[in-house]
Design brief:
Elements (H helix, E strand, L loop, with lengths): L1 H11 L3 H19 L15 H19 L4 H6 L2 H5 L5 H20 L3 H10 L7 H26 L5 H23 L9 H6 L2 H9 L5 H24 L1
Helix pairs in contact: 1-6, 2-3, 3-8, 3-9, 6-8, 6-12, 8-9, 8-11, 8-12, 11-12
Keywords: Cell membrane, Membrane, Transmembrane, Transmembrane helix
Membrane topology: Multi-pass membrane protein
Protein name: Protein involved in gliding motility GldF
Length: about 240
């Protein structure tokens, strides 16, 4: 499995696309949270990373499908998937190897953003940031990234076209993150059902963890979504 993980890592950084994706992600974050006046963390008047943790999922929604779109689609297109299947590896090992390889890249993109927390802590005149909520938010952001990775990998397992894999992966991530919140606003759910509809979406559980309290129910939700898409990916590659 770790051989596949290493291969996924090497494949992403074997072309300029991988480096460009990470640089654009970090550059866009830097511009939004320190330069653009409407979203700058320095203009809040108090030490808080709420703006970053509200906008970061939307950036990841496009970054992660970019990372995963080639995972299996390129294997199909180049004909190397048949060679991959001849290795002494089971289908779950191939799938989880691809998953962890992509997830390590996502983690690599998130680690530099911790400088925002250290910067605000140093710049704060008094009190500093809420450390507990910040740690919880990063845990939530990592779990959200793991779900997006599983979705993107699953989308890549359906097609040999990377563009189709990117668009379908980003669309499903959008539905899971914001679709249920939008659905709960419909009048038909105004009798108290809106809360339960929101619970089906990622944003509800992401916000819950971001408060600094890691509820086991939220963690189970994220793990269940990841497992569902990984099982679907496994079935897809076995059909191949």
């Amino acid at each position: 499995m770790w051989m596949i993980c290493k291969k996924e890592w090497s494949q992403f950084f074997s072309s300029l696309t991988g480096y460009v994706a990470l640089v654009v992600f970090l550059l866009l974050n830097g511009l939004m949270f320190f330069v653009f006046p409407n979203t700058s963390l320095l203009n809040f008047g108090y030490a808080s990373l709420d703006g970053f943790f509200s906008l970061a999922p939307w950036i990841l929604l496009f970054l992660i499908p970019t990372i995963t779109m080639r995972s299996l689609a390129d294997e199909y297109k180049a004909g190397t998937f048949e060679l991959l299947k001849t290795l002494p590896l089971t289908s779950p090992q191939i799938v989880w190897g691809k998953f962890f390889g992509a997830l390590l890249i996502v983690l690599l993109a998130l680690i530099p953003t911790t400088i925002y927390a250290f910067s605000l802590q140093r710049l704060s005149a008094a009190g500093g940031i809420d450390v507990g909520a910040t740690i919880g938010s990063y845990i939530g952001l990592f779990l959200l990234g793991a779900v997006f990775t599983a979705v993107g990998l699953c989308a890549s397992s359906f097609t040999n076209n990377t563009i189709v894999a990117f668009i379908s992966g980003a669309f499903v991530c959008l539905i899971l993150y914001a679709g249920f919140d939008a659905l709960s606003q419909l009048p038909v759910f105004s009798n108290g059902l809106d809360y339960y509809v929101q619970m089906l979406g990622i944003n509800f559980h992401y916000k819950s963890i971001s408060k600094g309290v890691v509820d086991i129910r939220d963690v189970i939700y994220f793990l269940a979504i990841i497992l569902f898409f990984m099982l679907l990916t496994k079935q897809n590659i076995e059909k191949r």
